[in-house]
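Intended use. Records like the one below are meant for learning the mapping from a protein sequence to its folded structure. Do not use them to infer anything beyond what is encoded.
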Amino acid sequence: MAQYTVLQKSFINDAIVEEGAIVEYDGEASDNLELIPEPVKTKKEPIA
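Structure written out for the chain above:
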């Protein structure tokens, strides 16, 4: 599930969420949410 920063007070997942909160949301995001990008996963090589 993607994580978003709430940009304005919103009703999300049956609750009022304040601006600045971080939420997990699995729907189509509106202008009130900003996607938090997932870190790029890199393949680690074993140390020889």
